[in-house]
Design a protein that fits this description.
The complex is a heterodimer of chains A (763) and B (338). Chain A has 18 helices and 28 strands. Chain A has 763 residues and is α+β, with helices and mostly antiparallel strands. Chain A is globular. The relative contact order of chain A is 0.14. Among the domains of chain B are: 58 residues, Uridine Diphospho-n-acetylenolpyruvylglucosamine Reductase, domain 2, CATH 3.30.43.10; 101 residues, Enolase-like, domain 1, CATH 3.30.390.50. The termini of chain B are far apart. Chain B has a 5-stranded antiparallel beta sheet with strand order 4-5-8-6-7. Chain B has a 4-stranded antiparallel beta sheet with strand order 9-10-11-12, with helices on both faces. A 3-stranded parallel beta sheet of chain B has the order 1-3-2, covered by helices on one side. Chain B is globular, with a radius of gyration of 19 Å. Chains A and B meet through helix 3 and strand 26 of A and helix 13 of B.
Chain lengths: 763, 338
């Protein structure tokens, strides 16, 4: 066993190599913009240079003269599209700002023209030659900018139903022996997946095929159909591989329907490859947030009062918010809790999901504040968390399905060497470097959604699994193949998985870390349908139903009576008894507590997530603990993070190799978020300034010399048939706070605004 | 990117000819219709961004054979302008006798870029000012003389605090140039009239009222070599930056000392990441020359180096940072074992 393929433990699956590893390493994996098109035209976007105002006129003569230009589409001649509602209001869109509809400009970098040409180069050159005259108005950029408006999230965002509260916060805080009242800030961030926000659209008569990296092919298919005013069955979205999503491809962006409509008008396939900087404004991002935290505790460290107030920036028309108080008010046992989330509207593009959307900013605030409280109490921060560990949701009183938070702290602390820490700030150093140790809790809700699957088994054991899931780099192909192989008792190499195609049975959005639990539960169920048929063929008078159920969930290998002994022989016998060459089953699975309209919504490209605190009688979260070593240079004040150690418990780990990779990537991103990543906004004109990968910093290898991932054995029979909690968004949650807590330990300086840069350090 | 013609120059004459032929009168070099292509790591980027719009590209990589010497000798060092950054950084004698050069190159860019980029192209790389690199901003005096400067009151954390003017505060981004200016390098320029030689310190022009004029080179001229007198084994390059690799300096210092019997006979101090051009801090050097080292000296030298610095909204921190970097680099240079 190597670090990449961790040794087996209870309830850990096999660390089999990635299903798609060879294809990716050898460059054979075809991403959306690699798909060959028949005689395509190429589109290049022109985006606005102002954030608010209107277009007075275009001068297009120079651009039209470029050889190969076919068409230049502006609001004056754009195809008419129907509006799509925001995903949270029953629609599909990530923004309701529809470009090319009028001369109005609502945000920086809005699409204002599409140049179509015979080559990418001609389209780009012509786009460079488009001249635009604007009447610019003064935009509101962000918090504190003149002209912004603020209001409570409750009542304007249908997905934010309630500000959680319990007990009497004000009274308890007043009476608390120890009090803390602090503010935190997080910056604007952009996902910057490697794959750009491309789209290719090709019509065959009335049928449209879209090649586009998407985290939700059914959502995109239905959304584009709605905008074009055509039957969703006429639209197919294809993307067998997605070059990173991180939330940015979860909901529909305006570009797709625009390109599809232009392709229809020109009667030619069109390929759009926007630039990196255009990606900052034609898709979504993580908006900046502010937090006020108040904690009251007894001298022995018990929390008696907790209040979390959060404010988030959104666009003028769309009340997007992440509302992470749903998690921060439930993480620790506290009898008196209050919270409030508000939304500040500015002249910006609409923000959207970005890896662990609610938890990243909100847990940064809470887990930093807890560390500050530990300092006030003169208490080890791990012990403070132990004292306040909860077995029930403090708001609704429901029990956690399983909760290994303190086990994670203990394992990670041991691996990290937490006991070597001298608690006093500024007390550890090595040459030019001050050393700090810090830790924080991490958590993410366990979510599931309805999913369908089709499985086909051949007499020779060859198996084909079809499901419109998404390989966004997480290992989805691999764990689905493993699930089918295990349930059917066929060798892994005989299983072929087909995903990323909206002609396949629907799967939910690859978001909210629900994919593994949802898709594998569906695949498992359909495999059991096949087993049942085989079983019945051999033993028509016996009932498999109960026996099959016994094996659902945690069995490491199939224990079907029919498949005992020489399995392939049994399969052959069963096929003979059935008198068929192929057995194929389709099924639709939904989690317990899913709403009545779940399956209809699933086919319509609308997600019905179940889980987290919204389960009926229980609350389900995955947990972890993260420890970091930070070094701060005495002279340059440069901040480096040589060690990241995380321990995580997330129910059944389907594949420790792909899981480790996810968790490791999360820790690295968390560090990046704490120390490097921020989209700079020019407040004068509400424009993003560092909109490229040279200036929007992400870590390089030299920044992450040591990352250790520990996966705990945890069994949870209450969440889903697979027994898996999503972990894709688990690891990058706690790191921000852990880093700032370590910086405090290194320097004695508490920094409450991210990212932390060398100029924020005063020694 | 706009259409351009491409030709390979097989010898220096042809290169100079091709570059000079397309030049219009009074065009600053940065706007010359013909641009030389060596490693291509800056020029191609700027063409894609539509910042540079040459109509002719003259590929000078065939000149590498003649122009990529790495020649340390008894009396000094000669470096061909087409030597690759990575080759010079890895050269054992450069590391021994000119650590400031080796380190300035090693700490720049990424391994992939260092393998492509040439020394000449490196010193000629243009600023990373976001407002310069984004043509949707009209107001850039470098791109559109007289249009104003969007960076002046914009997001200017990376911008310069020394050598600025009310027209431009764009930082000179390179590292290697600080080593060259510190060591009194000469730059050899090949043009129509043959080769001429000038102090490297005269190559870059402060923005003043003409930020579009960045160097003393004329269209049709190429850097062919750099030369340095003597050896500088007691020299360091210290670079402070946001991440551990592949990132421009927030502040850097190139220090070279000649210490004999405890007395600093000669001292060189150059600053990077903080100035509009490669920056020599002569006032700081004056405090060192002829002195014996004492614990207060680094601070006095650092204060002198930044005496004229002027910060703006987001970059004022560079003054305090720059001083600490100079002081620490000086301590390192004094204590280094040679």
């Amino acid at each position: 066993m190597t670090a990449a393929a961790p040794a087996p433990k209870a309830n850990l699956g096999q660390p089999v190599p990635r299903y798609d590893a060879a294809a990716k390493v050898m460059g054979r994996a075809t991403y959306a913009s690699d798909m060959p098109l028949d005689n395509p035209a190429y589109a290049f976007l022109v985006t606005s240079a102002i954030a608010k105002g209107r277009i007075d006129r275009f001068e297009l003569d120079d651009a039209k003269r470029v050889r190969g230009v076919i068409d230049i589409v502006t609001h004056e001649n754009a195809p008419k599209l129907k509006e799509s509602k925001l995903f949270s209001n029953g629609g599909y869109a990530g923004t309701t700002i529809q470009p090319l509809k009028s001369a109005e400009i609502a945000h920086d970098g809005q699409i204002i023209a599409v140049v179509v040409a015979e080559s990418y180069e001609a389209a780009r050159e012509a786009a460079n030659r488009v001249k635009v005259s604007y009447s610019a108005a003064a935009p509101s950029a962000t918090f504190d900018s003149p002209g912004t408006t603020a209001a409570a999230a409750k009542g304007q965002n249908s997905q934010f139903k309630e500000d959680p509260k319990v007990g009497d916060f004000a009274k308890a805080f007043d009476a608390a022996e120890v009090k803390l009242s602090v503010s935190y800030e997080t910056p604007t961030q952009h996902h910057n997946p490697m794959e750009l926000f491309t789209t290719s659209c090709a019509w065959m008569g009335d049928n449209l095929v879209i090649y586009e990296g998407s985290q939700y092919v059914y959502g995109l298919k239905n959304g584009v159909a709605e905008q074009l005013g055509i039957d969703a069955d006429k639209v197919r979205v294809v993307n067998p591989y997605v070059g990173g999503g991180f939330g940015s491809r979860g909901s529909m962006t305006p570009r797709t329907a625009i390109i599809a409509a232009i392709a229809k008008r020109l009667n030619r396939p069109i390929k759009l490859v926007p630039t990196r900087d255009q990606g900052f404004t034609i898709a979504t991002y993580r908006a900046e947030t502010r937090h006020e935290i108040r904690l009251g505790a007894s001298r022995d460290g018990r929390l008696v009062a907790l209040r979390h107030e959060g404010a988030e920036v959104s666009s003028r028309p769309d009340a997007y918010c992440v509302g992470g108080t749903k998690t921060t008010t439930r993480l620790y046992a506290c009898p008196n809790v209050d919270s409030l989330v508000s939304i500040v509207r500015a002249d910006r593009n609409t923000p959207g999901f970005m890896r662990s959307p609610p938890e990243v900013p909100y847990l940064f605030a809470l887990e930093s504040a807890l560390d500050e409280l530990a300092v006030k109490l003169n208490m080890d921060p791990v012990e403070l968390r132990r004292i306040n560990d909860a077995t029930r949701d403090p708001i609704d009183g429901k029990p956690y399905t399983s909760r290994s938070l303190m086990a994670c702290f203990d394992e990670a602390a041991k691996a990290f060497g937490w006991s070597q820490r001298s608690p006093q700030p500024k007390s550890m150093s090595d040459g030019d470097w001050l050393i700090g140790y810090g830790c924080a809790a991490t958590c993410y809700p366990t979510q599931m959604a309805p999913s369908a699957a089709r499985v086909r088994l051949q007499r020779d054991g060859r198996t084909r699994v079809e499901i419109a899931g998404h390989e966004i780099g997480t290992g989805a192909y691999t764990v689905i193949a493993q699930t089918a192989a295990e349930r059917l008792g066929v060798p892994l190499e005989k299983v072929a998985v087909f995903m990323g195609d909206s002609d396949l049975p629907p799967a939910p959005v690859a978001g909210g870390s629900n994919s593994t639990a949802s898709t594998c539960s569906a695949v498992m169920m359909v495999c059991d349908q096949i087993r049942q048929r085989l079983f019945k063929a051999l033993m028509p008078n016996d009932s498999l139903a109960d026996k099959a159920k016994e094996t659902v969930g945690i069995s490491p290998a199939p224990s079907t009576q029919a498949a005992k002994g020489d399995r392939s022989l049994d399969i052959e016998k069963a096929f003979d008894a059935l008198g068929v060459g192929v057995v194929e089953e389709y099924g639709e699975w939904k989690p317990e507590g899913a709403p009545l309209d779940s399956f209809r919504a699933m086919h319509n490209g609308q997600v019905r997530l179940v889980g987290g605190h919204q389960m009926k009688d229980q609350i389900a979260y995955a947990f972890g603990a993260e420890f970091v070593e930070v070094r701060v240079n005495r002279f340059t004040h440069e901040i480096r993070c040589p060690r990241l150690v995380g321990a995580f418990a997330a129910g059944r780990i389907m594949n420790p190799r792909t899981a480790r990779s996810q968790l490791m990537g999360g820790l690295i991103w968390g560090m990046s978020s704490a120390l490097l990543e921020a989209t700079e906004i020019d407040e004068r004109n509400a424009r993003y300034v560092n909109d490229n990968l040279a200036d929007y910093l992400v870590p390089v290898n030299a920044d992450v010399p040591g990352v250790e991932v520990i996966m705990l054995s945890e069994q949870d029979d209450h969440i889903n048939p697979v027994g898996a909690k999503g972990l894709g968004e688990l690891a990058n949650v706690g790191t921000n706070a852990a880093i700032c807590n370590a910086i405090y330990h290194a320097t004695g300086q508490r920094i409450r605004k991210l990212p932390v840069r060398l100029e924020n350090i005063e020694l | 990117m706009r259409p351009f013609s491409y030709q390979r120059a097989s010898d220096p004459d042809m290169a100079v000819q091709a570059l000079g032929a397309a030049a219009a009168a009074n065009d600053p070099l940065t706007k010359a219709a013909a641009q030389p292509l060596a490693g291509g790591t800056t020029l191609i980027d700027l063409m894609k961004l539509d910042v540079m719009r040459p109509t002719a590209i003259v590929d000078i990589s065939p000149l590498a054979q003649a122009w990529s010497a790495i020649a340390p000798g008894g009396d000094g060092l000669r470096l061909g302008a087409l030597a690759k950054m990575s080759d010079v950084a890895a050269h054992a004698e450069i590391q021994r006798s000119y650590p400031v050069i080796a380190d300035s190159l090693k700490l720049a860019a990424s391994a992939q870029l260092r393998n492509m980029a040439t020394l000449g192209g490196n010193v000629m790389q243009r600023t990373r000012c976001n407002y310069f690199r984004d043509v949707s901003y009209e107001n850039c005096n470098k791109r559109n003389p007289g249009s104003g400067c969007a960076a002046m009151d914009g997001v200017n954390r990376m911008h310069a605090v020394l050598g600025t003017s009310d027209q431009c505060i764009a930082t000179y981004p390179g590292d290697f140039a600080q080593a060259l200016i510190a060591l009194d390098a000469m730059v050899e320029v090949t043009g129509k009239a043959g080769t001429r030689s000038m102090p490297f310190a005269q190559l870059h022009k402060r923005p003043g009222s003409t930020p579009d004029i960045e160097t003393a080179l004329q269209p049709g001229e190429l850097i062919s070599a750099f030369s340095i007198q003597g050896r500088w084994p007691r020299s360091v390059y210290l670079k402070a930056r946001d991440r551990q690799s592949y990132e421009f300096a927030l502040s850097s210092a190139a220090i070279a000392l000649d210490i004999q019997d405890g007395t600093i006979r000669d001292a060189r101090v150059a600053l990077g990441g903080v100035a509009t051009v490669p920056w020599r801090a002569r006032e700081a050097e004056a405090l060192l020359k002829g002195q014996k080292f004492d614990d207060g000296l680094p601070q006095r030298v650092a204060d002198a180096a930044f005496a004229d610095a002027r910060g703006r909204r987001h970059n004022s921190f560079k003054i305090a940072l720059g001083k600490r970097v100079v002081a620490r680099a000086l301590q390192q240079a004094v204590t280094m074992e040679i």
